[in-house]
Specification:
This is Putative reverse transcriptase-rnase h-integrase. 35% of the residues lie in helices and 17% in strands. Strand 23 (583-586) and strand 24 (589-592) form a beta hairpin. The protein has 816 residues and is an alpha+beta fold. The protein has five domains: 62-304, HIV Type 1 Reverse Transcriptase, subunit A, domain 1 (HIV Type 1 Reverse Transcriptase, Chain A, domain 1), CATH 3.10.10.10; 320-382; 386-515, Nucleotidyltransferase, domain 5 (2-Layer Sandwich); 557-569 and 579-656, Orthogonal Bundle (Endonuclease III, domain 1); 681-815, Ribonuclease H-like superfamily/Ribonuclease H (Nucleotidyltransferase, domain 5, 2-Layer Sandwich), CATH 3.30.420.
C-alpha cells in the first residue's frame, strides 16, 4: 500500500501459522517454528488429510492397509444402507398414543441441543416430524465435568412395545470360548446403533419433542427397548460364519478375534475386515487393538489361559467414599456384582450392605457396613486372577456351607502343576434354608456349585472330585426315604460322575471362607464339626425326626392327655398318685414308663412307625419284631394292633418277602442244644451270584443255631475255596466266640473238601452235612438266607452294586 502524501510504502502484516513438528525434521527439544507463509484452504485440507492418513497407517498392521478407509471417521458419517435387519417398533393393540411436556433448557443445554439437531439432520439420522406420538428430550451429565449427553425418554413407548426376546450373549460363555487362545484382535464398531435403520413406517413412533419442533429418528437410537436385541441379531447374522468356526465372539458392537498362531490370526482378521467392508461398516481406530497377547474385553483383561479384572475400572476403587444413600450403596454393589466371579466370600461380605437395600429399612451406615465396604475394596484392589476352564482336564470343587451362606471354588491344574481357581461362587441362604440340617446345607452348596458350572462338568471325561469337610454327605445316595427336596437334589446329582472326598475344613479354607460371615466371627459356629450319622432309630428318643413339635401340638387337643394332666395335678387320693407314678412331663412331651406318649392322631402314629420300619438299621421287620422296636421308645393305646396293620400293608415287604406259608412240607430244623453258648452250634451257607461290589459277589452266612439265633454276614467271592473259608471263620467267628462244637452246612464242595474236613478233625469240630437234594437239614440257615435276601431287595433294589455296604446294617438289624 502506497501513501502518496508521505511517499511511504506500507506492507500488510505477515500471516503467521503454527504447524506441528514432523518426525525426523525438528528436534523434540526445539519450540514450534513460526513460518511466514500464505496457504490456501485446499492446501490446509490436504495437509490435514495427510496427517490422518499417516496416523492410520502407523496404527494399523501393514496387512490391513487395504482397509484403511474402514477407520476414517468422516466417511463413517454416511447414512446406513437399507438392510434386512431394519428395526421394527411393533406396538401392542391396546397402546394409547401419548403427548409429553416440553422441558425448559438452560443456555448451555440449548447450545448442545442445537448442535445435536444440526449434526444429526446433516447426517440424515433424524428428520422433522408431525407424529401424534412424542417422547421427551432432555440431557444427562457425562463423566467429563460439564459435558452433557442428549437423551430421548422412551419409557412410555417401551411400555407399549411388543418385546423382542432375542437373547444377548452370556459374558461368561463368551469368555469360555477364549480357552487356548494366544493372539487377540479387538475391533469396536463406529456409530453403534446408528448403523441400523428404523423400518419404514415406524419412524413416527419414536418421535421426540424439542423447543425447535418435532423430530423423528431414521436410524436406531439408544433408549428403544428392542434396540439391543435388533443390533445383536444384526451382528450375529453378518458374522455368523466366523462365530460358528469358533474364532470370533461378538457382544453388541464389540468384536474379538482369537487364535493360537499368528499366521492363522492374520488370515482370519482379513476375512473379517472384508466382511465389514461388504456390509459398509466402520471401526473406531482408537478403540481397536491388533495382534496382541493381552486385551481388555467386556471389562475383563484376557491373557492366554487367564482372566483378570480391568485395572482401569479398578482405578477409582481406592478413592471410593462410603455411600451416604441407598442409591450410593446400590451403585457400589452394582459395580461389585460385575466382578463377583473373582471375589471369594462375596455374599457374606456384601450382606450388611444388602440389608440396607431392604424396603422400610432405615439407612444407617454401621461399623459392620464400613468393615464390609473396606474388605470389598481390598479384595478388588488385590486384582485376583482366574484361569480359563478346560473341559478336557479334570475339575475339583471345594464346597462348604455355614449358617448363613454356601460357598464353592472350581479348580483346575495349571501349567505349573498347582490347582488354580477357575471361579468362585457364594450365595446367601434364605431364612427357610438356614433351618436346614447341616448335611442338607452342605449338600445345597454342592447342588448350587453343580448348577452354576454344569456346562463345564456335565458329560465330562473325568470324575468330578468334590472336597467337603463333612463326612456324611454320602447319605443322599444311600437313603431310601428322601423328602421332595432331597429327591430333587439326588436326581440332579445322579447326572454327574461325582466322587465325594472328605477333607478337614482347614484344607479347604477358600470354600469355607466363602460361606463364612466376617462380621459375626464372635459367634461360635460348630456346623462343620464331624457329625456321626447314626441310624434313625437311635434318634427317636430325642424326637429329632421332625415330629417333636407335631406331638406337642397334638397333646393339647388329645382328650386322654388332658385327663392324664388333670390327674397329675391333683394332690388327693394316694391310689391315684400311685397309678400316675409311671407318668412324667419333660420338655413339653408326656412320657409313660420312660417312653414318649404319642397322641391319638392316626397320621402321627403312622409317621412314627414308618420312620422306624424303613430305617436300614431295623430293616422292614415282621409284626412282632416291629412292635418290639417301636415299644422301646414310644407308647400309645392300641399300638400293637396299629403296628400289625401297618406291617401287613407295607408295599416293600409285600414285594420283597417270600411266602412263608407254602403248600408243601415245611423245613425241618435240627433241634437246638439246650444251655449252649453263643455259636457253640452254628450253621453255615453261601449266597451266590450277587452283583459285583468291590470285587465281591458272594456272602458267607453263619448262624448261631441253638443260643441267640445271631448271625454273621461276611462278603467273599464265588471263587473262594475251602482254605479261604477256614480263614474267614477264624477272622469273624473264632476270634469273637471261640471254636464251635458243631458246624451244620449243605454239601457245597467247599464244605465237603478235604481241607475243611481235616480242619474239623484237628479242632474237634463235628461237621454235619445235609442229605442230597434235601436242604431242610440246614433249615436255620435257609431261613436266614431268605431274610438277608429280602433285606437287600428292600434297600438295594435301585443300587444293587452297593449291597456290601448294607451287610453290617443287615447283621445289626437281625441281631437286634
Amino acid at each position: 500500500m502506497i501513501n502518496w502524501e508521505t511517499g511511504e510504502i506500507q506492507f500488510p502484516p505477515r500471516r503467521k501459522i503454527q504447524i506441528k513438528r514432523f518426525r525426523g525434521i525438528l528436534d523434540n527439544n526445539e519450540p514450534e517454528v513460526l513460518i511466514g507463509a500464505k496457504i490456501t484452504a485446499s492446501q490446509e485440507m490436504a495437509h490435514q488429510q495427510q496427517m490422518v492418513k499417516r496416523e492410520i497407517d502407523e496404527l494399523i498392521p501393514k496387512y490391513l492397509l487395504g482397509y484403511r478407509d474402514r477407520f476414517k471417521k468422516g466417511k463413517a458419517e454416511q447414512f446406513p444402507p437399507a438392510r434386512a435387519y431394519n428395526h421394527a417398533i411393533d406396538l401392542k393393540p391396546d397402546f394409547v398414543l401419548r403427548n409429553c411436556k416440553l422441558y425448559p433448557l438452560s443456555p448451555v443445554e440449548q447450545v448442545e441441543q442445537d448442535k445435536f439437531l444440526e449434526e444429526n439432520l446433516r447426517k440424515g439420522y433424524i428428520r422433522k416430524s408431525k407424529s401424534p406420538m412424542v417422547s421427551p428430550f432432555f440431557f444427562v451429565a457425562k463423566k467429563e465435568k460439564g459435558a452433557l449427553q442428549p437423551t430421548q425418554d422412551y419409557r412410555e413407548l417401551n411400555k407399549g412395545t411388543v418385546k423382542n426376546t432375542y437373547p444377548l450373549p452370556l459374558i461368561l460363555e463368551l469368555l469360555d470360548k477364549l480357552k487356548g487362545a494366544m493372539v487377540f484382535t479387538k475391533l469396536d464398531l463406529r456409530n453403534g446403533y446408528n448403523n441400523v435403520r428404523i423400518k419404514d413406517g415406524d419412524q413416527w413412533k419414536a418421535a421426540f419433542k424439542t423447543n425447535r419442533g418435532l423430530f423423528e429418528p431414521t436410524v436406531m437410537f439408544f433408549g428403544l427397548s428392542n434396540s439391543p436385541a435388533t443390533f445383536q441379531v444384526f451382528m450375529n447374522n453378518i458374522l455368523s460364519d466366523f462365530i460358528d468356526e469358533g474364532w470370533c465372539v461378538v457382544y453388541m458392537d464389540d468384536i474379538l478375534l482369537f487364535s493360537k498362531d499368528q499366521a492363522k490370526h492374520r488370515e482370519w482378521t482379513e476375512r473379517l475386515m472384508c466382511c465389514l467392508k461388504k456390509h459398509d461398516l466402520f471401526l473406531k481406530l482408537e478403540k481397536c487393538e491388533f495382534d496382541v497377547t493381552e486385551v481388555v474385553f467386556l471389562g475383563m483383561v484376557i491373557r492366554p489361559g487367564y482372566i483378570a479384572m480391568d485395572s482401569v475400572k479398578l482405578a477409582g476403587i481406592a478413592k471410593w467414599e462410603p455411600p451416604q444413600t441407598v442409591k450410593g450403596v446400590r451403585a457400589f454393589l452394582g459395580f461389585g456384582n460385575f466382578y463377583r466371579k473373582f471375589i471369594g466370600k462375596y455374599a457374606q461380605l456384601t450382606r450388611p450392605l444388602n440389608d440396607l437395600l431392604q424396603k422400610n429399612q432405615r439407612f444407617e451406615w454401621t461399623r459392620e457396613c464400613q468393615i464390609a465396604f473396606d474388605l470389598l475394596k481390598a479384595k478388588f484392589l488385590s486384582e485376583p486372577i482366574l484361569i480359563m476352564p478346560d473341559i478336557d482336564k479334570p475339575f475339583i470343587i471345594e464346597a462348604d456351607a455355614s449358617k448363613w451362606a454356601t460357598g464353592a471354588v472350581l479348580r483346575q491344574k495349571g501349567t505349573d502343576g498347582e490347582w488354580h481357581p477357575c471361579g468362585y461362587l457364594s450365595k446367601s441362604l434364605s431364612p427357610m434354608e438356614q433351618n436346614y440340617e447341616i448335611y442338607d446345607r452342605e449338600l445345597l452348596a454342592i447342588y448350587r456349585a453343580l448348577m452354576e458350572w454344569r456346562h463345564y462338568l456335565m458329560g465330562g471325561k473325568f470324575k468330578i472330585v468334590i472336597l467337603s469337610d463333612h463326612k456324611n454327605l454320602t447319605y443322599i445316595r444311600m437313603a431310601q426315604k428322601l423328602n421332595r427336596r432331597q429327591a430333587r437334589w439326588s436326581l440332579f446329582l445322579s447326572e454327574f460322575d461325582l466322587g465325594l472326598v472328605h477333607v478337614p475344613g482347614k484344607s479347604i479354607t477358600q470354600a469355607d471362607a466363602l460361606s463364612r460371615r466376617s462380621n459375626e466371627q464372635d459367634e461360635v459356629d460348630t456346623d462343620n464339626e464331624d457329625i456321626v450319622m447314626l441310624p434313625d432309630r437311635l434318634f427317636i428318643k430325642r424326637i429329632n425326626l421332625g415330629m417333636k413339635e407335631d406331638i406337642i401340638d397334638q397333646l393339647g387337643l388329645d382328650d386322654f392327655h388332658k385327663s392324664a394332666l388333670e390327674q397329675l395335678l391333683q394332690e388327693g387320693v394316694p391310689p391315684i398318685k400311685s397309678a400316675l407314678s409311671d407318668w412324667r412331663i419333660e420338655e413339653g412331651l408326656l412320657f409313660f414308663q420312660n417312653r414318649v406318649y404319642v397322641p391319638n392322631d392316626t397320621d402321627l402314629c403312622h409317621r412314627v412307625v414308618q420312620t422306624i420300619h424303613e430305617t436300614p438299621g431295623v430293616g422292614h421287620p415282621g409284626q412282632w419284631n416291629m412292635a418290639e422296636q417301636v415299644q422301646r421308645d414310644f407308647w400309645w393305646p392300641g399300638m400293637t394292633k396299629f403296628i400289625k396293620s401297618f406291617v401287613d400293608g407295607c408295599i416293600v415287604c409285600q414285594q420283597s418277602k417270600i411266602n412263608t406259608h407254602p403248600m408243601r412240607t415245611p423245613i425241618q430244623p435240627i433241634n437246638a442244644t439246650p444251655n449252649s453258648f453263643p455259636f457253640q452250634t452254628c450253621t453255615m451257607d453261601l449266597i451266590m451270584d450277587l452283583p459285583e461290589c468291590d470285587s465281591m459277589d458272594c456272602i458267607l452266612v453263619v448262624v448261631d443255631h441253638s443260643s441267640t439265633k445271631g448271625v454273621i454276614f461276611t462278603p467273599c467271592t464265588k471263587t473262594t475255596d475251602a482254605m479261604k473259608i477256614v480263614e474267614l471263620l477264624i477272622q469273624h467267628l473264632y476270634k469273637r466266640f471261640g471254636l464251635p462244637d458243631r458246624i451244620i452246612s449243605d454239601r457245597d464242595p467247599r464244605f465237603a473238601a478235604e481241607v475243611f474236613q481235616e480242619m474239623g478233625k484237628q479242632l474237634s469240630i463235628k461237621h454235619l452235612m445235609s442229605t442230597v437234594f434235601h436242604p431242610q437239614t440246614d433249615g436255620e440257615t435257609e431261613r436266614v438266607n431268605q431274610e438277608i435276601e429280602v433285606y437287600l431287595r428292600a434297600f438295594c433294589s435301585k443300587e444293587q452294586t452297593r449291597w456290601k455296604e448294607y451287610l453290617p446294617l443287615a447283621e445289626f438289624a437281625h441281631n437286634n
